[in-house]
Amino acid sequence: MSSTEQADVNGAPCAKRSKLRPNPPDQESTFANLRKVKDWLQRFHLSEQTLRDVSARLHKDLIRGLGKHSHHNAPVKMLPTFVRATPDGTEKGDYLALDLGGTNFRVLHVRVVEDEQRVLKMDSKICAIPQEIMLGPGEKLFDHIAACLSEFLESLGLKDQTLPLGFTFSFPCEQIEIDKSILIRWTKGFNCSGVEGQNVVALLREAIRRRGDYDIGSVAMVNDTVGTMMSCGYRDRSCEIGMIVGTGTNACYMEEMKNVKRVEGEDGRMCINTEWGGFGDDGSLRDIQTEFDVEVDRKSLNPGVHTFEKMISGMYLGEVARLVLIKLAQENMLFGGKISDALRTPEKFETRYISEIEKDDTGLSRAQEILSELGLPAGPEDCEIVRLVCATLSTRSAQLCAAALATIANRIRTNRKLDHLRTTVGVDGTVYRKHPKFSQRLHDVVRILAPKCDIRFLVSEDGSGKGSAMVTAVAQRLAAQSHLLEESDGEEDSEEDEEEEEEEEA
């Protein structure tokens, strides 16, 4: 928040007097209307106590999601990822990464350099997926992926190498092991037959075997949030939380194994993909949802699902803002009571407009341009009101996200019985990266809600590429350590057997 921008008690910026306004004739009337709008927007303001309540509710849901039986009905799914450690700095080597989640997919060659503590993207290729393949037999989809991977390896002269692969597959899956992930359902326009209910790693391996011209090594399935955490983990070994605030929102963190009731074993830790976007799907956030949140949810593709996400993320923020602007105009507080056809059109007020309008230097002039493009009769006062609406909604988004993040940080500290926790959050997403004030607002609220946690934020570099490679590298390291331990145990057993035999002979 700049020194020229005042804030109210909730941390939301107050409207500044516009440089565009040349001493209006009825200044008192203008200020009165701004105060009226500000009072009207109080419904979006969240007190510190409300945010603490939200955090407490989420913590209960985290525990439900981790439970062996209670997870079935938990709105926050707390999915085990089978990622059992973060990087320790000894990882090295060459890896492939495959990122599939839309009409294009990427293949990458990534090199982990131990001496320089760096993860380098050496080469990458984007491959299109034609519509007929997206809707055809699953075998053809994986044949297409295998063919593109073959061309990529051929172009780099790597076909004779058997490289490990990190696989980011951004569809709803149930992960059984780090290399076994069952597709629950297709989304994003895909509807390939014969894939739902199947292990996608096995389907990829079968397609590569059908070609017969190259092979891949071990495979690690990676959620994009986990990739974000791991891509930062090599740079900062205290990174144990990953968070995305972009089109959607989600987070992962390292949980104590003894609390992960759905997976055998009590030693060590495992990364849990919280899927916190579903928080509130059981109605637990009804008291802070506004009529506009309810309307956005009702008209979405998935009503009743991802309640928390719809109050925070980039896919929905612009639409909430559009509905608020319409209501203000209907109540004669904006645009002289006039509403254009463009403003009545769903999705017309884009989330990126919020970021552009909140910029200190150019925000008000950009607001004028945007409103003009939407066919709205916007004077300087209208621009200030629209800016105030944008700031109010983005502040609420940052506060809710901060409450959720503080819940996780506080849980990690409590789990480890620490007086003070120092940790790092690997973070990605367009809302966090591109909004001029979102990140600072989030940081400020986290400090208030998690006062015993010293949290550093590190922006991810290509979580779906470098991050998935790091997951694979860490999985290989742990497997090698396990193998060495087994060999060592075997040697000790052998020595003990020899000693027993000598005693018997004596």
From TrEMBL:
Pfam families: Hexokinase_1 (PF00349), Hexokinase_2 (PF03727). Pathway: Carbohydrate metabolism; hexose metabolism; Carbohydrate degradation; glycolysis; D-glyceraldehyde 3-phosphate and glycerone phosphate from D-glucose: step 1/4. Residues 1-29, 482-506 are annotated as: Disordered. Signal peptide: none annotated. Residues 37-234 form the Hexokinase N-terminal domain. The keyword Kinase applies. GO terms for cellular component: cytosol; mitochondrion. Its EC number is 2.7.1.-. InterPro entries: ATPase_NBD, Hexokinase, Hexokinase_BS, Hexokinase_C, Hexokinase_N. Residues 240-474 form the Hexokinase C-terminal domain. Belongs to the hexokinase family. PANTHER family: HEXOKINASE (PTHR19443), PHOSPHOTRANSFERASE (PTHR19443:SF84). This is Phosphotransferase. It comes from Anguilla anguilla (European freshwater eel). The lineage of its organism: Eukaryota, Metazoa, Chordata, Craniata, Vertebrata.
